[in-house]
Amino acid sequence: MGTALLVALTYWVIYVVDESFSWQALVRPIVTGPIVGLVCGDVTTGIIMGGLIEAIYMGIVSIGGGAPANAFDATVICTVFVIKGGLSTEAGLALALPIGTLTARIPQLILPIHAYFIRIFEKYAANGDADAYSRLQAMYRFVIGKNVQVIVIFFAIWLGSDAVSGLFNMLPAWVTGGLSVGAGMLPALGLGILTSMIFNKELGAFLVLGYALHAYLGLGTMAVAVIAGAIAVIMFFSDIGKSNNQPVVISEEEDFLS
Question: Within its chain, how far is the Cα of 86 from the centroid?
């Protein structure tokens, strides 16, 4: 229970800090994973889980008010399941999508609460009571707005960690093996979705180059990333030089007005 309470509090603190500064970065899996790992005493596993879940969700975009999945909640719950529940990394990844999809439905269940507070906001606005409006806005934003998710996180970790671990231990080897294979494909699927969104014929050569450096020359991902960063810097300054060397064309109208 102590771990569940601590992680739920950490979840709320991450949300409040991220929401206060409008960063929209702390709630990303690649940041949340290491923080949860630090709280649970295993930063390495937190980094691994955060990076893998980020690879799954980085290509999933929320459009308007629709959220297909909640990567923040999925990262917190799955990372704790792996560290404290004894699940394998593959099993944790296999749970990331269904948990993220389920927790994304929670805001829809508390819409009546939002509707109730809208009337109070409208009352303060109509009376011109800016101080009361601001106080309610702060309380609603940092206390009420995320309290249901905090409760869900607490009970999911408190009651679900041992249960999920026991369930996976009961599964036959062929099921767990299939889950491992499927979980291994999920980060590649996420990267594939992201690549399909940004891919064009001008960038295709760099994708092939990165694959060749890793597959045939045996370079690690960090080495490939450093090479890619160096190429990006060279191209950036090259484009700046080209733009500075282009002659400025002044139309007859601009020349007349000057």
Answer: 23
**Position 123, amino acid:** K
Q: Domain tally for the chain? A: 2
Q: What is the mean pLDDT of the chain?
A: 79
Which residues 6+ apart lie within 8 Å of 88 measured at CB? 82, 180
222 shares its domain with 234: yes
**Residue 202 neighbours by CB distance under 10 Å:** 7
In a domain, 57, yes or no: yes
Residue 80's nearest CA partner among 173, 171, 11 is 11
Q: Is 66 helix (H, G, I), strand (E, B) or coil?
A: strand
Residue-wise pLDDT for 65-88, tens only, equals 556 778 888 899 989 988 888 888
Q: Are residues 6 and 47 in the same domain?
A: yes
Distance between CA atoms of residues 248 and 258, nearest Å: 15
Q: Report phi then psi at 113, rounded to 5.
A: -65, -40
Same domain flag for 155 and 224: no
Q: 16 and 104 in one domain?
A: yes
- What confidence score (pLDDT) does residue 182 get? 67
Domain with 241, as residue range(s), is 199-245
